[in-house]
Amino acid sequence: MSMKKIAVLGNAGGGKSTLSKKLSHLLNIKAYHLDDLFKSSDGNKGFSEKEQLAIQDEILLKPSWIIEGVGAWSTIILRLKFADTIIIISHPLFFHYYIVIKRYLSDLFKQRKLLINQRKLFSQNKKLHGNHSSRSTSKKELPEIKRELSRIKKMLIMPWHLHYYWLPQLKSAIDVICDEDQTVIILKSFTQIDTFIIMLNSHD
């Protein structure tokens, strides 16, 4: 089985990044993570479909690659055409929700020390500037609250959409685009992912 151009796809929180890193180490092929490549340097703005295609085109022309992530549909279609190996990670939907929510809560926990420091600064500013500082800080916090609510909404909608709409479309596209020379692997649990890695190690 030739594995030089590998597309790793799947729902959120399924272990795509972890698998790609393991494959990169095992096969000595560079892994590209689209969550990083398809966002601006500050991480707040996603690139347009045209920009995503331009970024991906540079990777597809390389002799070997591991591309992990989703991105615009047109970028996925191109990956399916160029890849010699397509790996789909598809756990039960509830498990994707479990991982996504766990990650979110972990992020909140990590930010706790930062929030405590911000509150200390806020308390100090309040003593220095009085109520005016309180009103100013509250206004500054509103955009942050809106962004957090938007993040929660996306977190709840995305796994459901990917599972019930995107994944069936992906499988249909594979049936149409891929030929006999391409390998399609569907992994439905972490046990299967681990077994797959062990199998590759044994063939090395």
Number of helices: 8
Could you please say which CATH topology of the largest domain applies here?
A: Rossmann fold
Distance between the termini: 12 Å
Into which percentage range does the β-strand content fall?
5-15%
The CATH superfamily of the largest domain turns out to be P-loop containing nucleotide triphosphate hydrolases
Low-confidence stretches: 133-137
Strands of the largest sheet, in order across it?
Answer: 2-3-1-4-5
Count of strand segments: 5
Mean pLDDT across all residues, rounded? 85
Shape: elongated
Count of individual domains = 2
The CATH architecture designation of the largest domain is 3-Layer(aba) Sandwich
State the name of the first-level CATH class of the largest domain. Answer: Alpha Beta
Helix and strand content put the structural class at alpha/beta
Percent helix among the residues? 55-70%
Radius of gyration, in Å, reads: 21 Å
- Main β-sheet: number of strands, strand sense, barrel status? 5 strands, parallel
How would you explain this protein's 3D organization?
The chain has a 5-stranded parallel beta sheet with strand order 2-3-1-4-5, sandwiched between helices. It has helices spanning 16-27, 34-37, 49-60, 73-82, 93-110, 112-129, 131-177, 190-203, and strands spanning 5-10, 31-33, 65-68, 85-89, 183-187. Helix 1 (16-27) runs parallel beside helix 8 (190-203). With 204 residues, the protein is of the alpha/beta class. The protein has 2 domains: 5-93 and 165-203, Rossmann fold (3-Layer(aba) Sandwich), CATH 3.40.50.300; 97-149. It is built from 8 helices and 5 strands. It comes from Desulfamplus magnetovallimortis. This is Adenylate kinase.
